[in-house]
């Protein structure tokens, strides 16, 4: 089997794939089109499955050292009443860890720093990926041409590689929701580590970081492309009267810190995550809505599973067939569950439907709720060594 790979995309999935491939002895080059790595994004929650994948990659302890455990919190109504509580200590006993909150920029930096200097090429636009022979794949990067035994396309929801491999694929769909998010400029005193609050067609949530700052997000049912002249002022208007600490979090945020993105997903399942010696990974393969907090965790699972398959199988083609067989059913099932969670949670807007949902949540036994969480969190990674 060959031992050189090009990873297209320097996000969480691409960097994790590069780390995994290096752990099994491969030479890896990561190409990232951004010339300045500003790590756009706010915060991220890592569940047990993502943390176990990071452990197998060798970076789990580093990430835990920079993250904060989410031990107390749950889901509330705009008036402040509790719909459900989640005890992180109970989750920790079940799967070995609570959910961990970390700034996305910190996670990116930790993954980059774990790779040797020169592995990541920035400001490089990857062109078409071509199978140039029975055992060679080529990536045209302008003035540079990279030949390898494997290409890992971790180039996001708008993946160019996916479009080339599956030209008839319809591409991303708008979920019906748009998200605004930011990290507060300073620490904010909180009574909980994390919360979600569901109103009518709206959600406000937060996760606390190790340094006391807080990531918050607001998800709204709006037409695709909707934007505001003053996003922070618009959120203060929309969430006026919602319970504490929502007003305090908005007051602790600079207007220029607010990010706004439409929530898109790959609603049509891909028929395969691999063609020849090209593998799709992360959002390029299974971009999902954020309602289960599993997008990054699934990309991390991809990275470990891909490296393990390449370490076991006699050929790249056999390894990618194994990777596809192991990852496609699980990741697509998680994507369906995330979509359903959004429809039954944040996206509900009819008053009667919201009232019925709230009653059902209050009546759901805590053990049943925990079983639903463990369905996605309790994943055991393949061993890399």
Number of strands: 19
What number is the mean pLDDT? 94
For the largest sheet, list the strands in their spatial order.
6-5-14-15-16-13-17
At CATH level 3, the topology of the domain at 4-70 and 99-172 and 266-346 is FAD/NAD(P)-binding domain
Tertiary shape:
globular
Computed structural class: alpha/beta
Q: Name the CATH class of the domain at 4-70 and 99-172 and 266-346.
A: Alpha Beta
As a percent range, the share of strand residues is: 25-35%
CATH architecture of the domain at 4-70 and 99-172 and 266-346: 3-Layer(bba) Sandwich
Spans with pLDDT under 50 lasting ≥5 residues? none
Distance between the termini: 18 Å
Report Rg: 21 Å
Q: So how many helices?
A: 13
Major sheet characteristics? 7 strands, mixed
In CATH, the homologous superfamily of the domain at 4-70 and 99-172 and 266-346 goes by the name FAD/NAD(P)-binding domain
- Indicate the percent of residues in helices: 25-40%
């Amino acid at each position: 089997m060959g031992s050189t790979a090009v990873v297209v995309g320097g996000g969480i999935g691409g960097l994790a794939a590069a780390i995994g491939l290096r752990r099994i002895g491969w030479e890896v080059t990561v190409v990232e089109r951004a010339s300045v790595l500003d790590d756009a994004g706010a915060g991220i929650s890592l569940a047990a499955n993502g943390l176990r994948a990071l452990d197998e990659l060798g970076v789990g302890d580093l990430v835990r050292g920079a993250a904060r455990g989410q031990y107390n919190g749950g889901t509330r109504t705009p008036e402040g009443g509790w719909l459900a509580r989640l005890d992180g200590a109970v989750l920790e006993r079940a799967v070995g860890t609570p959910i961990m909150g970390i700034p996305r920029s910190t996670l990116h930096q930790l993954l980059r720093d774990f790779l040797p200097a020169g592995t990541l090429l920035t400001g490089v636009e990857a062109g078409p990926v071509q199978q140039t022979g029975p055992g060679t794949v080529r990536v045209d990067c302008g003035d540079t041409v990279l030949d390898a035994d494997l290409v890992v396309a971790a180039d996001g929801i708008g993946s160019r590689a996916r479009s080339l491999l599956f030209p008839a694929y319809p591409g991303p769909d708008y979920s019906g929701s748009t998200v605004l998010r930011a990290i507060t400029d300073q620490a904010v005193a909180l009574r909980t580590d994390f919360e979600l609050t569901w109103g009518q067609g709206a959600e406000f949530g937060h996760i606390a970081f190790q340094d006391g700052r807080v990531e918050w997000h607001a998800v709204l049912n709006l037409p695709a492309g909707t934007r505001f002249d003053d996003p922070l002022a618009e959120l203060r208007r929309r969430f006026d009267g919602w319970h504490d600490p929502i007003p305090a979090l908005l007051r602790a945020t600079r207007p220029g810190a607010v990010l706004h993105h439409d929530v898109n997903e790959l609603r049509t399942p891909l028929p395969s995550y691999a063609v020849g010696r090209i593998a799709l990974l992360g959002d390029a393969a299974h971009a999902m809505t954020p309602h289960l907090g599993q997008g990054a965790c699934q990309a991390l699972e991809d990275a470990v599973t891909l490296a393990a398959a390449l370490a076991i199988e006699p050929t790249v083609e056999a390894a990618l067939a194994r990777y596809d067989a192991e990852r496609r059913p699980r990741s697509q099932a998680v994507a369906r569950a995330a979509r359903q969670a959004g429809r039954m949670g944040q996206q509900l807007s009819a008053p009667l439907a919201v009232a019925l949902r709230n009653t059902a949540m209050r009546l759901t036994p805590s053990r049943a709720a925990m079983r639903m969480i463990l369905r996605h969190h309790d994943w055991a990674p393949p061993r890399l060594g």
